[in-house]
C-alpha cells in the first residue's frame, strides 16, 4: 500500500515522502495516528507541495546556519579558570561555560547540546570547539582558556 507521510517517521521517511508499506502497518498504525494518508492523485499533489516547502525551509535553515557560523568564527571566546603553574585546570571547562562565553562575548545564542566537546577542557591555552549548527554546517569556535 502506498501512503504519504504527514510527519517524519523514524526508519520510514520524512513528511511528504511517498512510501510503500504493508497494508496492516498503513491501515492499523500510520493512518489512524495521523502520521500518513493514503496516496491518491490529489494527495500526491499535496505531497509534492509538502516536499517543496520542506526543501525551501531546509535552504533557509542552512543559510541562517552559515550566517551564524561566520558570526561564531569571527573572534575567540576568552574564558578564565583556576589553574596551577603548569596550566592544568583545578576543575574543567564544559559545554555550559562555553555556551555562556559565546552568548556573553559574541552575542550569539547557542544551545548546549549543539556544542560537540568529546570531554571537558582541562588545560589552559587555545582550543577549537566544534558547534553543530545544521546537519551540514559546523562552526569551529576558538576558545582561549586563561588562568585566573
UniProtKB/TrEMBL annotation:
Q: Which GO terms describe its cellular component?
A: ribonucleoprotein complex; ribosome
Superkingdom in the source lineage: Bacteria
Molecular-function GO term, any one: rRNA binding
Q: Ribonucleoprotein: is it a keyword of this entry?
A: yes
Could you tell me where the Basic and acidic residues compositional bias lies?
56-65
Q: Which GO terms describe its biological process?
A: translation
Q: Describe its function.
A: Binds to the 23S rRNA.
- What's the protein called, per UniProt? Large ribosomal subunit protein bL9
Native species of this protein? Egibacter rhizosphaerae
From the UniProt record, report the name of the gene that encodes this protein.
Answer: rplI
